[in-house]
Design brief:
Helices cover 43% and strands 14% of the residues. By secondary structure, the protein is of the alpha+beta class. α2 packs antiparallel against α3.
């Protein structure tokens, strides 16, 4: 008998197991494609979306933090300015009270000089006044000079006026009733003053006596007589009785 033909071994391994078909993934080109697909992230990747959302949220938080920080700094600056303003107001009030004390000390010194007090007492009061005034000047308090100067309504108040004999003293401060002071360049208390008022003398023509007429001057013409009346005068009355002729 003829030998039978061996079975077709196509598609089978030598051990009788079916041979696995080759795929593109097993080739070098397939491996390169898989590697490139693993590196490139598709646009709709949820991880990328989460990262973008996290970045946006971080930017919002940082913007809110900067805004809050700026507002906090502004609040601190406002509080600091308010405290400085309150401190300055209380300081001014205290200095103004010391101005009243200085005024009373000046009045006491004038009274002591008027009553001819002892020289040691006067010297002690002058020394105390000088020390107090120097302390106030160190704190920014200065006296406003007005006596003998033209009246300035920005630093002084007019209480009354007084007649003066010279035209140069018109509208000039001739007396200071209450001293004025400046505090840090600002008027803390205006001065109370008396202003001079000059009245102009009458003109020379009005004040001169009337000029006398020269001796040889012609006399003024007499006034014309009034016109005679057109009514004739009354005739004389006849005697009431006549004398009889001799008997």
């Amino acid at each position: 008998m003829a030998d039978a033909e061996p079975p077709d071994d196509e598609g089978h391994s030598p051990n009788g197991e079916p041979a696995q078909a080759e795929t593109p993934a097993t080739t070098e080109e397939g491996m390169a494609a898989v590697a490139s697909a693993a590196v490139e992230v598709p646009a709709g990747n949820p991880f990328e979306q989460r990262a973008r959302l996290a970045e946006d949220r971080l930017a919002e938080v940082m913007a809110a933090y900067r805004t809050l920080k700026s507002e906090n700094e502004d609040f601190r600056e406002r509080q600091s300015r308010n405290m400085e303003r309150r401190f300055e107001q209380r300081r001014e009030k205290l200095l103004l009270k010391f101005i009243d004390v200085l005024d009373n000390l000046d009045r006491a010194l004038e009274a002591a000089q008027t009553s001819y007090a002892g020289q040691p007492l006067l010297e002690g009061m002058i020394l105390v006044r000088t020390q107090l005034l120097q302390t106030l000047q160190d704190e920014g308090l200065d006296r406003i000079p007005v006596l003998g100067l033209p009246f300035d309504p920005a630093v002084a108040e007019s209480v009354s006026t007084a007649p003066v004999k010279e035209a140069e003293q018109h509208h000039v401060v001739v007396k200071e009733l209450l001293r004025g002071y400046r505090l840090n360049g600002r008027v803390a208390r205006p001065s109370h003053v008396v202003i001079g008022h000059f009245e102009a003398a009458p003109s020379a023509e009005a004040a001169a006596p009337p000029a006398e007429a020269p001796p040889n001057a012609p006399e003024p013409a007499a006034a014309e007589p009034a016109e005679a009346s057109t009514t004739p005068p009354n005739p004389p009355k006849a005697p009431s009785s006549t004398r009889r002729k001799g008997r």
